[in-house]
Amino acid sequence: MVNKNDVIYDSTKMEYVGGPKKPSLPRFYFPIIIVIVLAEAVVLGLIIFDMLPIHAFQIYPWAQYGPYVSSSDISNIAVTVTKWFFFLLTAGVLVPTTIIIIMEIVRKLIVSFRGEQQGWDDEFPILEKLDKTPKLPKDEKKRVQGDYIIRFDIHQRIQHYILLSSFIVLAVTGLLRGFPDWPTFAWFTSIFGGQDVLRLVHDVAAFVMIADGVYHLGYIAYGYFVMHRSPAAIFPKWKDLKDILHSVLWIFGMYKKEPEYDHFQYGQKIDYWAIFWGMPVMVITGIMMMFPSLFAPLIGGNWMAVMATAHRDEAILATGFILIVHMYYGHLQTTAFPVNTVMFTGKMLKSKYKQWFGREYSQLTGEKEDK
Ligand code: HEM
Predict the structure, then answer these.
(1) Ligand 1, atom 10: nearest CA belongs to which residue?
(2) What are 192-247's pLDDT values in tens digits?
(3) Cα 300 from Cα 285, distance rounded (Å)
(4) Terminus of the chain with fewer CB atoms < 10 Å: N or C?
(5) For the whole model, what pTM was predicted?
(6) What one-character-per-residue DSSP string does 247-301 give?
(7) Range of 14-28, 56-70, 172-186, 294-308 with top mean pLDDT
(8) Contact at 8 Å (CB) between 153 and 182?
């Protein structure tokens, strides 16, 4: 019989295991994740370094908006302010999230070797005040189907396929265009057929992404006005603040379990809203650069330079965010590793759902939460 004192809570698996020091993840998980995070830290260093506002803004000869922007436009105060804004935004978003990810991995590493003894402090009453379990919208229980729980319908999955592919094409072609001085990038540019091909592919992919954005907004509007389906689950709530504090306390060993989530984890909400902010920035600035003869006479060369700066710097932030935050919370964290298929199949195994969205799982299935 297992001695009660030997029972440990393993938060890398989010379940109780029957003895101490039980390894819970594949042996190669931590070496792989450490290499990935170190590589990401190097990318982050390069991003931050390249975005330092002391770097001069450059216009390359192939830029369509080049003829509309003079050298005094480039050194104008509005361009400097834009550069500082994006530099601080990027550092403010990526540095703390990277630190939290690294701390989380260290915590999971410790848990996986030592196990976590029961009886550690739990539940700070003051945090509980921030929490209110939301009512499950009607018909939601239909999402439970056999061993699976349905999470995304076919429209959401199509939107994600299009976003994923158009973003990769835009990031590759855009960054190759924007950083031609890096020898590897210059080599890839020649392989792909030169700057004109990159621009054509970038323009086509941009319209695909814009169409996807319209599809997404139309889907939400149709859901809300016709199907009476509220998008409330994705909006920030006090519980998210509570969960962030809870996670930090868990990292320092003051909670024995990670938070129990409803329909979305706070990291997923940050992910969604980051894209919701980034898309209009990229679309507005990108369209102005695409048709400079139309927009430059209206807004002037100075603002064209601001648009180009914002487009470039938001592209760096978006790519860094996807590589670091989206990849970690989507695929690399212990419950998702090595690959999370839910966005492709639309459904999640019940056992996984319980780990990811414990509170909603209990509401959907009627099973009690683990205490
Ligand atoms: C969906 C809307 C988008 C539109 C309409 C758009 C449009 C454009 C256009 C027209 C240019 C060329 C400017 C020129 O050289 O004359 C450009 C450059 C660029 N794009 Fe986009 N783009 C979009 C999205 C993206 C995304 C999602 C990324 C990357 C994540 C990206 C990254 C870049 C970069 C890095 C450049 C080079 C900027 C520079 O010259 O320094 N773009 N974009």
Answers:
(1) 290
(2) 999 999 999 999 999 999 999 999 999 999 999 999 888 989 999 988 988 988 88
(3) 14
(4) N
(5) 0.85
(6) HHHHHTTS-SSPPPPSSS-HHHHHHHHHHHHHHHHHHHHHHHHHSHHHHHHHHHH
(7) 294-308
(8) no
Nearest to 260, CA basis, from 8, 7, 14: 14
Q: What are phi and psi of 16, to 5 degrees?
A: -80, 140
Query: Across 162-166, 234-238, 254-258, which has the greatest mean pLDDT?
Result: 162-166
278 with 326: CB under 8 angstroms?
A: no
Locate the ligand 1 atom nearest the alpha carbon of residue 213 and give its number.
1
Output the six-digit token pair for 225. 């006005």
Distance 180 CA to ligand 1 centre (A): 14
Pocket test for ligand 1, best of 188, 311, 321, 323 (most atoms within 8 A of CB): 311
Ligand 1 centroid – CA 124 distance (Å): 47
Q: What is the pLDDT of residue 11?
A: 54
What is the residue whose two structure tokens read 């302010």?
81
Distance of alpha carbon 234 from alpha carbon 156, whole angstroms = 14
Amino acid of residue 44:
L
Please enumerate, as own/partner, the contacts of 103-110 that have beta carbons within 8 Å and a separation of 24 or more. 103/251, 104/247, 104/251, 104/333, 105/30, 105/33, 105/34, 105/37, 107/250, 107/251, 107/253, 108/11, 108/12, 108/25, 108/334, 109/30
Q: Is the pLDDT of residue 92 over 50?
A: yes
Structure tokens at 47: 């991003």
Instruction: List CB contacts of 81: < 8 A, sequence separation 6 or more.
Output: none
